[in-house]
C-alpha cells in the first residue's frame, strides 16, 4: 500500500508575521475566556450555583451548600487547566518535531502507550504512588512515540505525515486492546480505571493537582526553551543545519518535553484525545506559526478547551456527567477529517 501526501509550499516570511498588537489582543481574549469558563466550571454541575453565590463562596460568605459545591469544583477546574495546557503544548511540539500536521498524542499512540504502562504497573507491580506512576507513564509514552516514528520512517520517503498517522492509529488501537486485555481478568483494577480509560478530571483533589504541577511545569519549560529551534525545523533539516541549528538536539529536547507533558497528563487524567491536534491548528490561525507565540497561546487555549469540555459534560447529562475524553473526541474527530481533506490525500 502506498501513500502520497501533497504538502503546500511554505509561505513567505511576510505571510508568517502577525502584528504584535493583534497577538496581544488574542492573548488577552484567551485569558478572559478562560476566566469565564472557570467561573462557569464553579457554577455548573449536578447542583447549579448562582454567580453571586460563586463570588460569595470564594469570599467565604455564602451558604454552606453553595460553598461546598464551589470548593469541591475548584480542584477539578485547576486540574483541567493543567491537563489541557499540557496536552496542547505536547501536540504543538510533536507537530513541530515531525513536521506533521496530523501529529497528536492520541493519534500517534503516545497517550495509549502511557495508559498501557500505567495499567501494567498497577496490575502486576501494585503501582500506586503518584511520582512512580507518572514516571512509568512517561516511559510508556516515550516508547510508543519511538515505535511509531520508527515504523512511520520505514520505506521510501521516510516519515511522511500520512505514514506517521497510519502507524500511530494502528499502534494506538493495538495498545488500547492490550490495555483492555490486562484489565478484563482483574475486576478490581478494571473498576478503578473504567472511567480513567475514557479520560476525565472528575474526583480531582488539591493534593492530586499539586502532585502533577511540578512535573508538568518541567515539561513545559523544556518545551518552551526550544521554541526558536522549532521555528527552524519548519525550514527542513538541511536548511536548518545550514543556519547553524543543531537539529538532532532540538528534536530530542522538544520530544522529551512533549513526552513528559503527555505522560504526566495521562497518568493523572487518563488518555484524552484530540486536544493536541485541534488546539495548535486553531492557534496558528490566530497568532501565526511562530512557536514563541504559538506554544504559550496553545497552552492557554488548551486549558480553555478542557475546562469548557468538562462544563459541557456536566451539563448535558445531569445528574450524571459525560467524561471530557468523550467531549473532546466529538469535537476532534470532525476536525481531524477536515485536516486530512485539506492536505489533499490522493492515494491510499
Automatic annotation (TrEMBL):
Keywords: Cell membrane, Membrane, Transmembrane, Transmembrane helix, Transport. The chain crosses the membrane at residues 25-46, 77-94, 106-127, 133-152, 164-184, 252-281, 293-316, 322-340. It comes from the Bacteria. The keyword Transmembrane applies. InterPro entries: ABC_BtuC-like, ABC_transptr_permease_BtuC. It is found in: Cell membrane. Belongs to the binding-protein-dependent transport system permease family. FecCD subfamily. This is FecCD family ABC transporter permease. It comes from Schaalia naturae. The lineage of its organism: Bacteria, Bacillati, Actinomycetota, Actinomycetes, Actinomycetales.
Amino acid at each position: 500500500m502506498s501513500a502520497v501526501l501533497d504538502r503546500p509550499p511554505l509561505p513567505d516570511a511576510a505571510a508568517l508575521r502577525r502584528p504584535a498588537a493583534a497577538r496581544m489582543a488574542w492573548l488577552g481574549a484567551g485569558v478572559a475566556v478562560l476566566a469565564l469558563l472557570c467561573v462557569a466550571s464553579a457554577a455548573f454541575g449536578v447542583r447549579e450555583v448562582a454567580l453571586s453565590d460563586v463570588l460569595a463562596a470564594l469570599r467565604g460568605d455564602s451558604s454552606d451548600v453553595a460553598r461546598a459545591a464551589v470548593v469541591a469544583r475548584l480542584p477539578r477546574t485547576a486540574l483541567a487547566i493543567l491537563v489541557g495546557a499540557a496536552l496542547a503544548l505536547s501536540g504543538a511540539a510533536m507537530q513541530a518535531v515531525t513536521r506533521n500536521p496530523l501529529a497528536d498524542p492520541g493519534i500517534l499512540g503516545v497517550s495509549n502507550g502511557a495508559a498501557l504502562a500505567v495499567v501494567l504497573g498497577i496490575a502486576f507491580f501494585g503501582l500506586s504512588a503518584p511520582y512512580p506512576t507518572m514516571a512509568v507513564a512517561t516511559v510508556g509514552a516515550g516508547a510508543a512515540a519511538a515505535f511509531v516514528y520508527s515504523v512511520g520512517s520505514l520505506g521510501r520517503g521516510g516519515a511522511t505525515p500520512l505514514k506517521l498517522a497510519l502507524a500511530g492509529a494502528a499502534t494506538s488501537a493495538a495498545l488500547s486492546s492490550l490495555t483492555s486485555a490486562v484489565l478484563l481478568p482483574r475486576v478490581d483494577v478494571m473498576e478503578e480505571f473504567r472511567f480513567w480509560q475514557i479520560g476525565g478530571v472528575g474526583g480531582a483533589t488539591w493534593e492530586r493537582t499539586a502532585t502533577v504541577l511540578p512535573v508538568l511545569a518541567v515539561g513545559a519549560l523544556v518545551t518552551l526553551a526550544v521554541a526558536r529551534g522549532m521555528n527552524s525545523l519548519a525550514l527542513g533539516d538541511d536548511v536548518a543545519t545550514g543556519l547553524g541549528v543543531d537539529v538532532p538536539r532540538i528534536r530530542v529536547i522538544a520530544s522529551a518535553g512533549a513526552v513528559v507533558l503527555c505522560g504526566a497528563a495521562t497518568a493523572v487524567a487518563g488518555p484524552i484525545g484530540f486536544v493536541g491536534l485541534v488546539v495548535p491548528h486553531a492557534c496558528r490561525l490566530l497568532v501565526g506559526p511562530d512557536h514563541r507565540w504559538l506554544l504559550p497561546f496553545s497552552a492557554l487555549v488548551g486549558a480553555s478547551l478542557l475546562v469548557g469540555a468538562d462544563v459541557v459534560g456536566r451539563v448535558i447529562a445531569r445528574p450524571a456527567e459525560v467524561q471530557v475524553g468523550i467531549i473532546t473526541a466529538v469535537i476532534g474527530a470532525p476536525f481531524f477529517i477536515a485536516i486530512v481533506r485539506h492536505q489533499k490525500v490522493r492515494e491510499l
